[in-house]
Design goal:
The protein has about 180 residues and is α+β, with helices and mostly antiparallel strands. Helices cover about 55% and strands about 15% of the residues. The protein contains four helices and six strands, in the order αββββαββαα. It has a four-stranded antiparallel β-sheet with strand order 3-4-6-5, covered by helices on one side. A hairpin with a 4-residue loop joins strand 5 and strand 6. The N and C termini lie far apart (about 50 Å).
């Protein structure tokens, strides 16, 4: 049987990995990806709404994203949201469809994106280590309350460390993969 504390720590660490994957999806790599637009919201009848809920998104070419709003009266609002985002992209529209060309990345921009991906990875590692610390603190409290023995405490702390090592390794692999993706021409 898995200890509930270890189970909780595992879920928290898994959540941190999923968050990192979402962060990486939003990093521009020089190729069109709908993940670039995930964080863009527009004012849709007074409600901030994700772009994918108000338009059809498509990738007809490797360096082009098309956005076809369901209600063309929101085309200007969508353009403004894209321009004001941190993507650095210039949308153009023909009154019905917004075209979002993805320019190739400069060498300097690639290096900046690699640094940013490493920063996201380090933040995730710090978060994972924090979950380990919190889990170990909970285990020590349980041992102090005599709900687990000293031997159980040592065993469960080792389990927590194994989980930590596993997820830190996963972060390193994700960073390496993203770096290769960014630097690939």
């Amino acid at each position: 049987m898995v200890d509930p504390t270890i189970q909780k720590v595992n879920q928290l660490m898994e959540g941190a990995i999923e968050h990192l994957k979402r962060e990486f999806t939003a990093l521009r790599t020089g190729r069109a990806s709908l993940g670039l637009l995930d964080h863009i919201k527009i004012d849709y009848y007074g409600t901030p709404t994700p772009l994918k809920q108000v338009a059809n998104l498509g990738i007809p070419e490797s360096r082009l994203i098309t956005i076809q709003p369901w209600d063309v009266s929101h085309i200007r609002e969508i353009e403004r949201a894209i321009i004001s985002s941190d993507l650095g992209l210039s949308p153009s529209n023909d009154g019905k469809i917004i075209r979002l060309p993805i320019p190739p990345l400069s060498e300097e921009r690639r290096k900046d994106l690699v640094k940013l991906s490493k920063k996201y990875g380090e933040e995730t590692k710090v978060q994972i280590r924090g979950f380990r610390r919190d889990g170990n603190d909970e285990l020590k409290r349980q041992q102090k309350d005599s709900t687990i023995t000293e031997d159980d405490l040592r065993h469960l702390e080792n389990e927590t460390q194994k989980l930590t090592d596993k997820y830190i390794h996963t972060v390193d692999e994700l960073i390496k993969k993203k770096e290769e993706e960014i630097l690939a021409i």
